[in-house]
Amino acid sequence: MTPSEVPAPSQAGGRLVSVRTDLVELWKLAWPVVLARLGIMAMGLSDALVVGRYSARELGFHALAWAPTSVVVTMSVGLLAGVQVMTARVIGQGRRELAGAVLRRGLAYSLWIGAVSTGITILFGPILLHHLGLGQGLADGASRPLIVFAFSLPGYAVSVAASFWLEGLSRPKAAAAMMWVANGVNLAVDLLLVPGTFGLPALGAVGGAWATTCARTFLAAALLIYIARMPEARELGVFAKPEPDRAAEAEQRRIGFGAGASNFFEVASFASMNVIAGWIGGLAVAAWAITLNVAAIVFMVPLGLSTAAAVLVGRAYGARDMKGVDRAALVAFGVTAVFGLGVSLIVWLGAGLMARGYTGDAATLALAVPAVALSALMLVPDALQVVCAQALRARGDVWVPSVTHLASYVFVMSPLAWWLAIPMGLGLMGVVWAVVAASFLSAVLLLSRFKYLSVMNA
Description:
- There is one protein chain.
- With 458 residues, this protein is mainly alpha-helical.
- Helices cover 83% and strands 0% of the residues.
- Helix 3 (81-92) packs across helix 9 and helix 7 runs antiparallel to helix 8.
- The protein is globular and about 55 Å long.
């Protein structure tokens, strides 16, 4: 390197300050989002614990009813991702008054998503349960809470739109706090309706579904009230009817369609892992559930980092600061990799202890412990792929992440898991190896895409 190629001290110092600023912003944005996402998991867990302690049979009804709506919930998160990205972009452009227009579009979109999801779930959910080969008693028992869960979907969709808007504004703490207040509402209604206290009839799984519906509706209302009472609400255009902007509307939907497609591919593929585990045997299903739950808890941190990355990258992209786009993304990738390496070591070393926290059955542990230990290999690439996918969407590259998820999880992971587990005889370890391979493939494809765009825009 020649002296002329060496960055001047002021340039190097400026870059260092920028990196530090991005690190601080990443941290400030990520940790409340992680808490909020953990709150979503906690709500389902508290339902399962209260219903399970009341009746194992009712817990089965609850789990079966939850499964179809969980697909809708995941799709809603993806379809509304445009709220978060577009809010960050208009802030980056210095056009804060347009943030309200993004919110209003998102809320209208969320109401449509919620209403259509509710109608489809009520009309076709019970029919689906009765055609899955379940016993008549199971299908009938799960249909009642499923219908109640359906009424929670509009509130959930609205709460996602409102939360994403606040996160796009770099104000995620309020959404996180209200999520945990909603958890308190959920638990209170659970304890009231599931076993039937204060003279109320015991509703079992139906009571758990009503608890979720009340909590989600409460969360949506609380977030909207908070937004309406924000001192800068008028400055952000919350109450102003926006001028029609077809391009912005289309872009917001496009981002949502891309993220929704990615979420659908992943949800469908991981659902197929449950089926393959079922073909192996009942113990394999239980061991896979333990493995997946450990990975899901870890995944909440990369999910928070992906939101922070999307906001920082989207803000820089809105300001047309392509160096800022690359810097923010690289900071997020670096933090994600460090976290992934650290937690991988913890999971690998603590696999036995973690698995025993779920069950004391020796036969199940014999499958679960090595599976959890092997799953440590997927944690770094899985974390990087979700953060990179969001960073790409924030910089306007919407459909490539969807295509890579389709290729990695649908075309590679599912058939590979079947081949390794059944014909090759690796059982549950074959399923985990397939997930590891798909995670590496997805991460490599997405990081390569980000690198390509960075070079093209240099």
